[in-house]
Amino acid sequence: MPEKSDHAFDFTTFLADKATWSIPASLEPYTCRDGSSLGCRHYSAMKVSEASQLCDERHIILIHGSSSDSRYLATLATQLATVGYHIHTPDLRGHGPAPARRGDIDHSQQLEEDIEDLITSLALSKKATLLIAGHSAGGGLALRFAADISRRQPLDISLAGVILLAPYLHYRAPNTRHDSTWATPNIPKMLLCSLLAGLGIHACDHLEVLTFNIPKQYRDSNTTSAYSWRMMQGINPQHYQRDLAMLAQHGVPLLAMIGEHDEAFHAERLGNSLLPFHEKTQLEVMDNVDHLGIATSEMTGKCIDKWLTS
User: Serine aminopeptidase S33 domain: from which residue to which, for each copy (predicted)?
Assistant: First the structure.
């Protein structure tokens, strides 16, 4: 494990395994309600047997973490597609190869609107099952989005489950490591934006308030190195306890997974963050896995498939 002074996560091991990763599917455009076009990678389900009648009906939206894009999810997506799930990995607005404004969105609900527009573009049949999954900050967004659509019921498709991979819940959540060096907040700018937002003023929402500790040798043209105030407000859960309670109220199953060596969150405290609000959460702590590794480990796909088929 590299020293924390080098970087927050073990990028060295993560990228050393890159040669074994599956090749990402091509980005395919879909249209959002504001008329803009975003990209998503689709991995079609492969039928396991003729007896498996549900292969063409199971869909998982899998959301990437902060600063990144959907490419690193290709191995997990391919593994799940092989055993019969359609996997969709969008590049969130403000991320990916050519965003209109990197690290920024128009308003704090826009990411949720984009995911809903993606689901609408899939034109799923009423027999389809839909699950929402996410890694790290993407896990927080998955929770937030799932709770919102459970409350509003805007889609004809019912939500069959939520999968959280080392999720970011809140900086005050019991499992958050406060010594993590992954993200550096600009406290004065945050205080300014929060104060103005409380007064209904959003003139400063575009200001960059969060910078990610990404070593130069691991950056590329798709890297998003900082977030605006409204991006930070839009991707993170605002009330994770309430979101969990909403899923429990609507009977939405929840699988939460974390590596025992996670550098951003206390693995042993994830249950304390989730179970008081969603007591039927299935919690899995993966041996010898860290924060980035849980998104590429073969064990992750096997655990998800076992949960979905049990």
Answer: 59-266
Tokens of 241: 């306890």
For domain 11-181+236-309, give the CATH superfamily: Alpha/Beta hydrolase fold, catalytic domain (3.40.50.1820)
Which residues are CB-contacts of 280 (< 8 A; sequence separation ≥ 6)? 248, 253, 254
Query: Domains of the chain: which residue ranges?
Result: 11-181+236-309
Residues contacting 113, CB < 8 A, separation 6+: 32, 33
Mean pLDDT for 133-142 is 98
pLDDT in tens, 180-197: 889 999 999 999 999 999
**pTM (2 decimals)?**
0.93
Which of 146-155, 158-167, 215-224 is the least confident region? Answer: 215-224
Distances (CA, A) of 28 to 33, 51, 65: 17, 31, 20
Please choose, from the candidates 93, 84, 90, 121, the residue with its C-alpha nearest in 3D space to the C-alpha of residue 25. 90
Report the C-alpha gap between 290 and 122 in whole angstroms: 33
